[in-house]
Design a protein that fits this description.
The chain is about 30% helix and about 25% strand. It is of the alpha/beta class. The strands form three sheets. Strands 6-7-8-3-9-10 form a six-stranded mixed β-sheet, sandwiched between helices. The chain is globular, with a radius of gyration of 19 Å. The N terminus is likely disordered.
């Protein structure tokens, strides 16, 4: 087994206990608790403003809680050394920016920063990890291409490859397919599925409920800062849940290939 595969196979448990998050005096999430399933893809869904990205930032230690705690392998993530957290959790934010002319391989090298120090400089091991990340994202032939000369789906796979090179068992993605067309969305979702199959635990914020149902093993549905449904998509997604989350009526049918829910006959919900 390669070093990258060994790192991905090591278990890491991320939990939230009575977690509260807000901005100033405005509380967005109040006393939320969850436990993420290992080596699975979890999708967080819900309407705009429900707290999805705020929750992800809290799980990644970018947003300090006003109450409760995020636990990484049982320890309060706020009290752990930053380098230790960076070796266990990787976050890919929604808005990513890179210097003009940066190539794919140069971007992926940034994923090795948590493993560098003044005593440990770039090594053959680091280069091997970069090459493995390129292979995992199917980007070997594009390694020296500038990011600004690539398609949206290719760029997003490059950013995910950078997170892969960080060698964390946990990967948090904030809307990884936003602004991508259908073909490029599939590129990214298929990469995410392959990473989970290799042992990574992945949490992603997703706007499209049908895609979340198809590509996630576990669904967390949020409304007004609270979890209103959680579990396997085919078990928790109901017509009533869709109405509660998005204010629309629909008819649910199972996908012929996967059995996951598909929304049909969409219409604005009428007041009851």
């Amino acid at each position: 087994m390669t070093e990258l595969a060994e790192m991905e196979s090591r278990p890491a448990r991320l939990q939230a206990h009575a977690l509260s998050l807000g901005y100033g005096s405005t509380e967005i999430i109040e006393r939320l608790s969850l436990s993420l399933p290992d080596s699975r893809v979890t999708a967080i869904v819900g309407p705009n403003g429900c707290g999805k990205s705020t929750l992800l930032a809290g799980l990644a230690r970018l947003h300090a809680p006003s109450g409760g705690a995020v636990l990484l392998d049982g320890a309060d993530i706020q009290r752990l050394p930053s380098r230790e957290v960076a070796r266990r959790v990787a976050l890919l934010p929604q808005d990513t920016q890179a210097p003009e002319g940066l190539t794919v391989s140069e971007l992926i090298r940034f994923g090795r920063q948590p493993h560098q120090s003044w005593l440990r400089q770039w090594s053959a091991e680091d280069q091997r990890v970069v090459e493995e990340a390129l292979a995992a994202a199917d980007l070997q032939e594009l390694a020296e291409r500038p990011l600004n000369a690539m398609s949206g789906g290719q760029r997003q796979r490059a950013w995910i490859a950078m997170a892969i090179a960080q060698q964390t068992p946990l990967l948090l993605l904030d809307e990884p397919t936003s602004a991508l067309d259908l073909g490029h969305q599939l590129e990214v979702f298929e990469l995410i599925r392959s990473l989970a199959a290799a042992g990574k635990t992945i949490v992603m914020v997703v706007h499209d409920l049908v895609s979340a149902c198809r590509f996630a093993d576990h669904l967390i549905a949020m409304h007004a800062g609270r979890i209103v449904a959680e579990g396997a998509p085919k078990d928790v997604v109901t017509e009533e849940l869709v109405r509660r989350l998005y204010g629309i009526e629909c008819t649910l049918i199972p996908d012929p290939a996967t059995g996951t829910p598909i929304l049909t006959d969409l219409r604005r919900a009428r007041p009851r």
